[in-house]
Design a protein that fits this description.
Keywords: Cytoplasm, Hydrolase, Metal-binding, Nucleotide-binding
Function: Nucleotidase that shows phosphatase activity on nucleoside 5'-monophosphates.
Helix content: 25-40%
Number of helices: 6
Order of helices and strands: EHEEEHEHEHEEEEHEH
Structural class: alpha/beta
CATH topology: Stationary-phase Survival Protein Sure Homolog, Chain: A
Family: Belongs to the SurE nucleotidase family.
CATH class: Alpha Beta
Shape: globular
Radius of gyration: 19 Å
CATH architecture: 3-Layer(aba) Sandwich
CATH superfamily: Survival protein SurE-like phosphatase/nucleotidase
Subcellular location: Cytoplasm
GO molecular function, one term: metal ion binding
Distance between the termini: 48 Å
Strand order of the largest sheet: 3-4-2-1-5-6-7-11-8
């Protein structure tokens, strides 16, 4: 297969390099990623300033790679339109940190894959749980699972407008219980606003958030805590058809 790889952590991120190194063993790969980290950029695109493209050389990788001054969605769009042809699949990741529950709305990783799905390319978003107090995680296992799931999808589940959102728990391979196909859950946060000094702006804050506790449910958040790799098919059509029928009966 010819695979376009993107991410939101940047062209030099360990996760994207590990993914590309694994996939080039059996596939033709091109890497197109943001020049700098663009985490939590959601599905934003660049409209009012030029986007620059630079060919890059990634250590230990013998494939074409480009950095883009824009967003993750820009990377996919430019990759498909300008930098390669006849792509079979778009894969976004491996993201540093999980993209579970309603956090997929904020995720640049998921949005890059969704941009591909909008234009009818099969796509995968893959993320790995990490210990945020450290910065030494190994993405080898996540890359191997990505290749494994891709092989299954290639034979049985290549749907052109569906994103397979995959999350890998931060556990040893021997502790992984398997792959669980499940819906996304709901994630909410308690936000902390720390006031900082910025000249000319008296009300300036640094924002952080802690995920709120919630009841256990049969969703991606609960299953990853139990040691499962989670897989959720996502689609860009956000219509709730039950609510659509209710609204139809009221407003029409």
């Amino acid at each position: 297969m010819r695979i376009l790889i993107a991410n939101d952590d940047g062209i030099r991120a360990r996760g994207i390099c590990a993914l590309a190194k694994e996939l080039v063993k059996e596939h033709e790969v091109i890497v197109v990623a943001p020049r700098e980290e663009r985490s939590a950029s959601s599905h934003s695109i660049t409209l009012f300033k030029p986007i620059s493209i630079k060919e890059e050389k990634l250590e230990g990788l013998d494939c074409k790679a480009y950095s883009i001054s824009g967003t993750p969605a820009d990377c996919v769009r430019i990759g498909l339109d300008r930098l390669t042809k006849d792509v079979d699949m778009v894969i976004s990741g491996i993201n540093r940190g999980i993209n579970l529950g309603t956090d997929v709305i904020y995720s640049g990783t998921v949005s890059a894959a969704m941009e591909a799905a909008i234009y009818d390319y099969p796509s995968i978003a893959i993320s790995q749980e990490v210990n945020w107090d450290r910065n030494d995680e190994d993405y080898t296992m996540a890359a191997e699972y990505a290749a494994y799931i891709l092989k299954i999808a290639e034979k049985k589940y290549l749907k052109p407008n569906v994103v397979l959102n995959i999350n890998i728990p931060n556990k040893h391979k021997s502790e992984i219980k398997g792959v669980k196909v499940c819906p996304i859950g709901k994630t909410t946060y308690t936000h902390e606003y720390i006031k900082v000094e910025e000249e000319g702006y008296p009300e300036t804050y640094k924002v952080s958030g802690i995920r709120n506790q919630r009841e256990e449910a049969l969703d991606d958040i609960s299953y990853i805590d139990k040691g499962y790799i989670t897989l959720t098919p996502l689609h860009y059509d956000l219509t709730n058809f039950k609510l659509l029928k209710e609204a139809e009966e009221i407003f029409e």
